Structures are given as structure tokens and as C-alpha cells.
Amino acid sequence: MTATLSGAMAERTSNSTVSSAGFTLIEITIAIVIIASAMVIFLGLQSSIVDQTLRAGEQEQAMMLARRILAKYETSDDPLNVGETVWESGKTALEDLDLFSDQDQEQLDTLNHFHIRLTIGTQGIPQLEEDAMKRLDLVIAWGAAPDQRFEVLYYVPNAPAEPSPKPGGTP
Known about the structure:
The chain is 49% helix and 22% strand. It is built from 4 helices and 4 strands, in the order ααβααβββ. Strands 1-2-3-4 form a 4-stranded antiparallel sheet. The radius of gyration is 36 Å and the shape is elongated.
């Protein structure tokens, strides 16, 4: 009788060892849910990082375009005429302002989606002159959202008027 009890106990012990050695279906399901949730969060962050990188690239292109346009006006000997100019693409703006070379052709094609508006006005200095400065308001947009535009407000000294000759023959 002792031999049979020992055998029954040994059988019960071996069954309990086998059943606790593996994972249950509930444990596997919970692990899959945790891994899936982590993947969804990770992919969401990855998508956000890609969007931010693309937005930064667009802003950098707009800034470089603004630098080229404003440098043209700053170094020009021609007087700045008051008014507004609108270009439907960055390529058109650079071509109109003669700011590109044949080497820039590939870069110019990447600027087609920019819309540019340049407004030139006068700005007075209190207690000095009413039109001492030219105010350049440059807006470069590549979409309708507020974060898809680059705005620059730039001031250039107005060209002084030519002095009239003095009545002694010397200016």
C-alpha cells in the first residue's frame, strides 16, 4: 500500500510540475497586448519625429530663400519702390531677381511650392524724418497652416536725396 501511495504522490507531483512549466493563454495574450501597445506608441513617436524633420527642412529652405531675396535688395544700388510683389513660386522669384546660376537649377526645382509676398513701404523715425527707412515685409509660405510660413521684417536706410548744388558752384 505504501508503494501505491508513493506512486500516486509522484504522479501528482509530476503533473503539477508539467502544468506550471509553460505559459497560460491569458499570460500570452497580456504579453501580446503590452507589446502591441508599446509598438503603437513607438510608431506614433516616429511619425511625429518625421513630421518635425520635414517641417524643419521646409523652414530652412524658406530662410535661405529669404536671405537671398533680402541680400539682393540690401546690396542693390537701385532705389526700392514702395509697393507689393507676389511670386507664385520660389523659382520664379529667384529668376525675376537674377539670383540663380545654371548650377542652382536642381535646387530651384525644389522651391516651386513656396509662395512669396514682398511688401515695401516707408518707415519714419520719430522726430527725424517721416520716410527715413524702407520697410521690407517678406512672407514665404508653403501651406495654409500658421507654422507653414516664414515672415521677415527688414529695414533698409532710405537713399538720401541728392544734395542740391550751392550757389557758389560747389556741391
